[in-house]
Amino acid sequence: MKTKAAILWARDTPWSVEEIELDPPKVGEVLVQMVASGMCHSDEHLLTGDLAGVTPEPPLIGGHEGAGIVLEVGPGVYSVVPGDHVVFGFVPACGRCPSCATGHSNLCDMNAITATGMQLADGTARHHAGDKDLALGVGSLGTFAHHTVVNEASCIKVDKDIPLDKACLLGCGVVTGWGSAVYAAQVQAGDTVAVVGCGGIGSAAVQGAKIAGARVIAAIDPVEFKREKAQEFGATVSYSSIDEAVADLETSTWGRGFDKVIMAMGVGNGDALGQAFWLGGKRSKIVVTNIHPIGETSIAIPAVFLTVFEKQIIGSLFGSGNPRADIPKLLELYSQGKLDLDGMVTRTYPLEGINEGYDDMRNGKNIRGVLVY
Taking CA atoms, which of 87, 99, 216, 302 is between 20 and 30 Å from 325? Predict the structure, then answer.
């Protein structure tokens, strides 16, 4: 079939919306009509090359934070049928590898295959432009398209009464931020929490910390609009920089330092992480959720405090969550009015507006921009 998709033909060039040819699903695969896709910063990493070597090379179709309606299933697919509504988990979950079997499906071994951008089952392409095979970006999903073919392992069935233009955020940013607070940082009632970077992931981390019962939630971001939104989501205090937050520790944490620090910047930076280390108090957890450029190989922290203050640095992918369990769970919290997805969607765009949407992201205008097809 023919459909439209946003193609990245080369690094540091705009997305090009073009007609493509899409093959039908093969064994274990699902054809989905996309309804909406969040514009996550991780797809910006495809354009800049920050993750070169662990993500596909152009030409590729971007997008991984998507939701849609199943149109067709290939042989051997049993978990979804045509007509089902699905959210994609950007990390596929096979349910059989050691990570999945021990409750860490966010680290499923199938994720290694997504670095090729090809289909997970046989390593070939279903998306084509002329005589070119098109890779799929983060997660081998290709949600920047009106239709896509993905592996069953990436599909999470959701209730049909959930608006898909909000549900799509659960494919990456919301679970990543919420889980960074609840799972990776293990925020508990009465904790003091600092969130560095208050875009899509940081806003979800603020909400996770609030739901977990934190008594102080500091939102740290240079963009005033994002700080204001963070306070709507539950932040109790805000700062324009890490240095400003460090200078105010006597007031915000009674001089003790934050119990939990969550790094959710658009692009990780070793110097900023070194600064943020000073935000944490004794036995604090510093959770690194944001992606650092692949070429960055060191950070500057006073390592002695890892021992004498028992500070911990913790990495977290997909918020250390479980897509099959956490996507439906968070959608239930949304239905109950306990999780604000509506407030996280700042603007919507058609597929043809993708470059405008990413310009707005770069200029700090959006918590999350969403493509609606």
Answer: 216
